[in-house]
Amino acid sequence: MSVREQYSVAIIEPSRIVSEGLSAILHDSDFRVVRQFETVDDFNQWEAALPEEKRVDIVLLNPVLLGTHPSQPLNGLFPDACSSLVAMLYSYIPPELLLEFDATIGIDDAPTTIIEKLRDAVATAAKRLDCQNIDKQELTKREKEILAYVVKGLTNKEIGEKLCISIHTVISHRKNIVHKTGIKTVSGLLMYALFNDIVTADEIPQE
Amino acid sequence: MSVREQYSVAIIEPSRIVSEGLSAILHDSDFRVVRQFETVDDFNQWEAALPEEKRVDIVLLNPVLLGTHPSQPLNGLFPDACSSLVAMLYSYIPPELLLEFDATIGIDDAPTTIIEKLRDAVATAAKRLDCQNIDKQELTKREKEILAYVVKGLTNKEIGEKLCISIHTVISHRKNIVHKTGIKTVSGLLMYALFNDIVTADEIPQE
DNA sequence: TGAAAAATACCAACAAATAGCGATTGTTTG
DNA sequence: CAAACAATCGCTATTTGTTGGTATTTTTCA
Q: Nearest-CA distance from A108 to chain B in Å?
């Protein structure tokens, strides 16, 4: 995936208006919409028939299509995480469902904003690939979730209550996080979390 | 605002369904919905006529009523920030618009979740008031020195050894730092230290 | 379908941090 | 001078985190 290349985009979006609008906006950019789908199943069917190297660079997906249940379909969607996943938002989506997306586009975003966000998303995906290849050990989804709460300053007990798991489990996850990253201090973990897009700076309570 | 008090709530929400639903859910809690409005103007008119001490504890507001323009109406809404402001979300709202809210309620939140979030919101508002009253003081040179070591991940004992002072002194300094800044978590302190040029990012050990 | 990985849960002993107290010694400053 | 502040040190009690285990259930995937 070189820098000056045109990036291919697939849109999975139930609303034709939104779908067509996005296509129009991306028409004059270096993002090329190769196909539009109305359901995840349609997309999966199409994608399955594709050779590995013809996979799209970006999948623009409306999270409502995933239902309220968390990330089960997502894991199946991108086993190798070779594509960048971007959420198209115009109805309320619980924040925890958005964790696995590389970016989110709002219904009232300006065209320039949208393109900018897509650029960020491919960069994030590229970084994620690097991390997978280079990094010794990637954190699991659950571990990232725990880490996010840790650097936000919640105690183990609070995290356990929030995720409805025992404090022992939280402690176990923390042990694994420390072991995998080799980072023992909260400050170091915060830097790691910021650097790896597990949290953003504005999520850290300054009070 | 004592602990066992009933908190008064005003709802500003264009959808009657949502508005009534919230009222019903809060009916059996210690939150009392005193009035429902469909526009911000309606609310402002009502609120203006109220004596200071009769202001509601919580304003539950649908952010769509604020338009896409950022927080101008919000500042006017609560000049003294005596109330807690909670967002009612069921359509997409740009994240930056949600910064000034003490909490956000999603359309699919369970009643217990809603009540929990409202409780958090009043706590946040109370803390915000405290911060405003005890206006922030500057840290002393020694305190900054301690803070630098804290965010670098040294323990109190290590800091004491490094500076050739007792661990009790370190603890005292830390207490003063927490009290002056109002920041209790290491992550928050790191952000503070970075923001105030007490440390730089590359000084934070990522191991 | 069977093995591996991830998530879950628990224990015990120890280390570290926090809260709430007080107290002494300088230094600055109105 | 007296008051305010900074820096130092001390105590007790309690909470929270760390470390190094073991073990079960669920999920994933080849």
A: 8
Yes or no: is domain B7-133 CATH 3.40.50.2300?
yes
Domain ranges of chain B: 7-133, 141-203
**Domain spanning B141-203, CATH architecture:** Orthogonal Bundle (1.10)
Report the CATH superfamily, name and number, of domain A7-134.
Answer: Response regulator (3.40.50.2300)
Q: Could you tell me which residues of chain B have a Cβ less than 8 Å from any Cβ in chain A? A: 68, 89-94, 99, 106-108, 127-128, 131, 151-153, 182-188, 190-192, 195, 201, 204-207
Q: Which band of pLDDT confidence, cut at 50, 70 and 90, is reported for residue A34?
A: very high
SS (H, E, C) chain A: CCCCCCEEEEEECCCHHHHHHHHHHHCCCCEEEEEEECCHHHHHHHHHCCCHHHCCCEEEECHHHHCCCCCHHHHHHCCCCCCEEEEEECECCCHHHHCCCCEEEECCCCHHHHHHHHHHHHHHHHHHHHHHHHCCCCCCHHHHHHHHHHHCCCCHHHHHHHHCCCHHHHHHHHHHHHHHHCCCCHHHHHHHHHHCCCCCHHHCCCC
Q: What type of residue is A29?
A: S
CB of A171 nearer than 7 A to strand C: yes
- How many whole angstroms separate alpha carbon B10 and alpha carbon B118? 12
Distance between CA atoms of A60 and A206, rounded to whole angstroms?
A: 33
DSSP notation for B49-105: TS-GGG--SEEEE-GGGG-SS-SHHHHHH-TT--SEEEEEESB---GGGGTT-SEEE
pLDDT in tens, B143-187: 888 999 999 989 999 899 888 888 999 999 999 888 888 888 898
pLDDT tens string B86-117: 998 888 777 666 767 888 888 777 888 889 88
Would the CATH topology of A7-134 be identical to that of A141-203? Answer: no
The model carries a pTM of 0.58
